Amino acid sequence: MAATASSYSITMRLYTAADHSVVGAVATTIAHNGGVVTAIDVAESRHDRLTVDVTCSAADATHSQELVAAVAEVEGVTVHKVSDRTFLLHLGGKISVQSKVPLRTRDDLSMAYTPGVGRVSMAIHDNPEDVRKLTIKGNSVAVVTDGSAVLGLGNIGPGAAMPVMEGKAALFKRFADIDAWPICLASQDTDEIVKAVEMIAPGFGGINLEDIAAPRCFEIEARLRESLDIPVFHDDQHGTAIVVLAALTNALRCVDKQLADVRIVVSGAGAAGTAIVTLLLAAGAHDVVVVDREGALAAGDESLSAAHADLAAATNPRRATGSLREVLVDADVFIGVSAPGILDPEWIPTMAPKPVVFALANPDPEVDPAEADKYAAVVASGRSDYPNQINNVLAFPGVFRGLLDAGASEVTVDMLLRAAQAIADTVSAEELHAAFIIPSVFHPDVTKRVASAISGREG
């Protein structure tokens, strides 16, 4: 059983016999049952008992329970308490507000608040453009969701979406030093969402739409871009598209193919799939076929929705029809943003020589990356426990850093293309390899390079 890194990590507090060999027996038991021990700490040692904290990772929640049960069977061991480290991390939330100025004396208060603050407010009233300089607006982003398409969890609502939006805000701060605020709206009505964002927009330098289901997200983004004078960016669409294009640029370098020449099959016609296709076409791709549950989208199919009909009209120049298995034959690239397990690894050999497979459905990809790796020249996924993770963190912090630095009022396709190229170029020719087509999210240059590409300024 494959163990993950930390997302299913637990700490067991154990009472054991006063015999340190028991600790070794516990570690062996966990390993034998497929877990990975990451820490063992003796919290207390007495002549009659040891108190031991054992931290280990598991494949999933059920596996965690199995590990606890196995440890409880070790002779001389009592499981006193089990803590889920992910839940502990979220207690009380993951972000907070911190003042940037000292408030120790009346003098401090007189400048930070009344009466001094009134002068600043009137200065902004007289010169509205100064709001970016004299408030947090110039370095703040609203992370807005309605909770209708959260990660791979579906329509779970605004409250349940809050931990994800908090996480997004923490990432903005960590990677781009941007102050981001979770805005979870109690409505899934397009008009109400647009109105709510328009009403809060004066306090922000940019809007990051997040986890809003298609096709509603398309209209919300389009209307907000039309009505607001600050950039609006739907990360599920454009962040994903940027990183996919960056990864594909380097994957094609590995197999010595050109974007304009390859056949690409995209599984998934939702927000991410639509944005990926749009950016691929803008980058110079010509032969792209989109597949949904019913098969390949082709122009002229009157059964298609308006959004899918538009997508079909822009793609599939050969008017290919049929299932994913059928249109995959002789394709150079597969990009999946759809559902787990829909790609049989044995279909990959029917693709063109040196095929590229991006299985990006989360948390479970369209095909097991390890199985795909047996047949494909380059494999990428959305998972952190395999090489070539396609992660939006490579894009959105730098994108917004660049937008805010430039005081931009909109996001353009040219900006997205430049951002993708900046990410791709972060991997040097010496580093480029089939198992390393995309930099780590912790690469120190990624955010700076993307920000410079967006703003047009030197990093």
TrEMBL record:
<dbReference type="InterPro" id="IPR002912">
    <property type="entry name" value="ACT_dom"/>
</dbReference>
<dbReference type="InterPro" id="IPR046346">
    <property type="entry name" value="Aminoacid_DH-like_N_sf"/>
</dbReference>
<dbReference type="InterPro" id="IPR001891">
    <property type="entry name" value="Malic_OxRdtase"/>
</dbReference>
<dbReference type="InterPro" id="IPR051674">
    <property type="entry name" value="Malate_Decarboxylase"/>
</dbReference>
<dbReference type="InterPro" id="IPR012301">
    <property type="entry name" value="Malic_N_dom"/>
</dbReference>
<dbReference type="Pfam" id="PF00390">
    <property type="entry name" value="malic"/>
</dbReference>
<dbReference type="InterPro" id="IPR037062">
    <property type="entry name" value="Malic_N_dom_sf"/>
</dbReference>
<keyword id="KW-0479">Metal-binding</keyword>
<comment type="similarity">
    <text>Belongs to the malic enzymes family.</text>
</comment>
<dbReference type="InterPro" id="IPR036291">
    <property type="entry name" value="NAD(P)-bd_dom_sf"/>
</dbReference>
<feature type="domain" description="ACT">
    <location>
        <begin position="11"/>
        <end position="85"/>
    </location>
</feature>
<dbReference type="InterPro" id="IPR012302">
    <property type="entry name" value="Malic_NAD-bd"/>
</dbReference>
<dbReference type="Pfam" id="PF03949">
    <property type="entry name" value="Malic_M"/>
</dbReference>
<protein>
    <submittedName>
        <fullName>NAD-dependent malic enzyme</fullName>
    </submittedName>
</protein>
<dbReference type="InterPro" id="IPR045213">
    <property type="entry name" value="Malic_NAD-bd_bact_type"/>
</dbReference>
<keyword id="KW-0560">Oxidoreductase</keyword>
